[in-house]
């Protein structure tokens, strides 16, 4: 089982502005603890104690709070970007990624078992495995289905009132093989969807591991507020099975 983890903690957190103009997103509090502290504790519990933090925006604050990681019984190294390289770009310049590693966004709050995810990935032989979750999006509008024309109008075939659409979405948690990042070039911007599409185009195996338990992306304002409601469970070390309705 790998001990290596990379946490992406350099984003500007524009969706949580103006809070993130003075506080980096990974230090946003869930109750009395920064989300990054909760994540580091979870990594340690999963045996992932060799951690690199990819930092950028307000990096000095992350360093000041986390330090060398010894307070959380992990070893923390820093990889600081002088300019934004996207969600995958920093991986090209991080040294010692010569083994399977876990990659996590620094704003994820979840009960996902990282050990289980890594085990499933290794059994599958994937170059990359993406932890995924089902999300339902509801529109507040009546949606028309149209086809063809009637005079100067479109012909209506159906009418759906406030439909709900279910999607399988990335949780921002991945297990990555070194070969998967070999196509990245140091200093070049690359976002994770671009890397996934490049891997698929090359014929590499990319897997999805569906997780239906607790997951929030606290970079979204709605999820951040929900995390505050769950703070007592988080700080007690027992997240609820599902977010509250």
User: What is the CATH fold-level name?
Assistant: Spore Coat Polysaccharide Biosynthesis Protein SpsA, Chain A
**CATH architecture grouping:** Alpha-Beta Complex
One letter per element, helices H and strands E, the order comes to EEEHEHEEEHEEEEHEEHH
Counting helices, strands and paired strands, the structural category is alpha/beta
N- and C-termini, Cα separation: 36 Å
Helix content range of the residues, please?
10-25%
* CATH 4th-level superfamily: Spore Coat Polysaccharide Biosynthesis Protein SpsA, Chain A
Can you summarize the main beta sheet?
A: 7 strands, mixed
Uncertain residue ranges: none
Strand order of the largest sheet: 5-4-1-6-11-8-12
Number of helices: 6
Query: Using only CA atoms, what is the Rg?
Result: 20 Å
Inertia-based shape? globular
Query: How many domains make up the coordinates?
Result: 1
- Beta-strand percentage? 25-35%
CATH classification, class level: Alpha Beta
Instruction: Give the beta-strand count.
Output: 13
**What integer is the average pLDDT?**
88
């Amino acid at each position: 089982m790998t001990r290596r983890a990379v946490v992406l903690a350099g984003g500007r957190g524009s969706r949580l502005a103006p809070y993130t103009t003075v506080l980096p997103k990974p230090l946003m509090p869930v109750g009395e603890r920064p989300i990054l502290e909760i994540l580091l504790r979870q990594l340690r519990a999963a045996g992932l104690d060799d951690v690199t933090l990819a930092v950028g925006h307000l990096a000095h604050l992350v360093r000041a709070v986390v330090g060398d990681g010894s307070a959380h019984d992990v070893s923390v190294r820093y990889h600081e970007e002088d300019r934004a390289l996207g969600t995958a770009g920093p991986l090209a310049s991080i040294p010692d990624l010569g083994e399977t590693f876990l990659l996590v966004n620094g704003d994820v709050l979840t009960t996902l078992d990282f050990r289980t995810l890594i085990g499933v990935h290794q059994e599958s032989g994937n170059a990359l495995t993406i932890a995924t979750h089902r999300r339902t999006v509801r529109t507040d509008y009546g949606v028309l289905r149209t086809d063809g024309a009637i005079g100067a109008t479109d012909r209506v075939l159906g009418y759906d009132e406030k439909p709900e659409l279910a999607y399988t979405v990335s949780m921002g948690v991945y297990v990555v093989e070194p070969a998967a990042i070999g196509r990245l070039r140091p200093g070049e911007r690359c976002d994770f969807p671009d890397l996934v599409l490049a891997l698929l185009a090359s014929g590499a195996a990319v897997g999805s591991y569906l997780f239906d338990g607790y997951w929030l992306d606290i970079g979204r304002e709605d999820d951040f507020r929900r995390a505050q409601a769950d703070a007592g469970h988080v700080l007690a070390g027992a997240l609820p099975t599902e977010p509250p309705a």
